[in-house]
Design goal:
Number of strands: 15
Strand order of the largest sheet: 6-4-1-10-11-12-13-14-15
Organism: Roseobacter denitrificans (strain ATCC 33942 / OCh 114)
Family: Belongs to the carbohydrate kinase PfkB family.
CATH superfamily: Ribokinase
Pfam family, one: PfkB
Distance between the termini: 19 Å
Shape: globular
Number of domains: 1
Enzyme class: transferase
Largest sheet: 9 strands, mixed
Order of helices and strands: EEEHEEHEEEEEHEHEHHEEEHH
CATH architecture: 3-Layer(aba) Sandwich
InterPro entries: Carboh/pur_kinase_PfkB_CS, PfkB_Carbo_kinase, PfkB_dom, Ribokinase-like
């Protein structure tokens, strides 16, 4: 099982009302939630670990996880409210305003770490859950505790405007990268992590020196590449699509990458070292296919395996 660890929230998506004014429709979302949904729909055994509310939005999140065959058994339930993210779309690009104070997802503490069963072979982390405290320390503690036994993929999905204490966030990210097997970043993320001059390839190699085995870099419409510790690299183009919006594009790209690696049997500590360039090229290609379907739909709505003939 792949256990996706991080935020679940409600995206309030702007939608015209019958009267002509713009309203907001609640859609289940969150970077890690979206990846979990994508994996479940691709037929990969998937679980979800987060703080989930018992309120009506929390019930919506749990129901949507179940509908996509994702287990919420590891979720920490409470009566705190659900995080809300109001979305503004401009030219298909999404920006967000978060309401996240004292929420079920944010108020996780390291003392609440669950015991994981042996069938959990890989952990996936990222998103705003690595910024907001105290939950950021909950996820960092889990990654550090289990990194020696389970494959770790990390996608920080950095939102500079959301970071209150940059030094503390950078230190946490560095600790988690040391134990990560796969790091996925956008080109903008990479430039934030390593500011200054230098090519994408040089910066990716600098990160592998921290201990990361594979660094995946996405460049939007320019495609994606994967960089190995020994200097090898592969790239794939983006899939053509008529873009409705980009909500969840990177998250569902990750689900495609993880789904291929899972199907190929690489997501265990015994096998992760055997991933080669051809394997990563296939994984990136599936990620691109999944993302292309998602951006052609409103909101984060990943495809099912049968839509991709898998």
């Amino acid at each position: 099982m792949i256990l996706c660890c991080g935020e679940a929230l409600i995206d309030m998506i702007p939608t015209p009302t019958g009267a002509g004014a713009e309203g907001f429709v609640p859609h289940s979302g969150g970077a890690i939630f979206n990846t979990a949904i994508g994996l479940g729909r691709l037929g990969v055994p998937t679980g979800f670990l987060s703080g989930l509310s018992t309120d009506l939005f929390g019930q919506q999140l749990v129901s949507d996880l179940a509908a996509s065959h994702v287990s919420a058994d590891y979720a920490v339930r409470s009566d705190l409210p659900t995080t809300l993210a109001f979305v503004r779309l401009s030219g298909g690009q999404a920006s967000y305003t978060f309401y996240d104070e004292n929420t079920a997802g944010r108020m996780l503490e390291p003392e609440q770490l669950p015991h994981l069963s042996p069938d959990v072979t890989a952990l996936y982390f990222g998103g705003i859950s690595l910024i907001s405290e105290p939950c950021a320390e909950f996820y960092a503690a889990l990654a550090l505790r289990d990194g020696a036994q389970r494959v770790i993929m990390l996608d920080p999905n950095i939102r500079p405007g959301f970071i209150r204490d940059e030094a503390r966030y950078r230190a946490r990210l560095d600790r988690m990268m040391v134990g990560a097997d796969i790091l996925k970043v956008s080109d903008e993320d990479l430039d934030w992590i390593l500011p200054g001059s230098g090519t994408t390839e040089d910066k990716a190699m600098s990160i592998t020196e921290k201990g990361v085995r594979i660094v995946i870099v996405t460049r939007g419409s320019a495609g994606a590449s994967a960089h190995f510790t020994d200097g090898r690299a592969v790239s794939v183009p983006a899939q053509k699509a008529v873009v409705v919006d980009t909500v969840g594009a990177g998250d569902t790209f990750n689900s495609g990458v993880l789904a291929h690696l899972s199907r190929a049997g690489f997501l265990s500590k015994a096998r992760i070292k055997d991933i080669g360039p051809a394997d990563m090229e296939d994984a990136l290609a599936l990620g691109a296919r999944v993302a292309a379907v998602t951006v052609a739909r409103a909101g984060a709505n990943p495809p099912w395996a049968q839509e991709l003939n898998l």
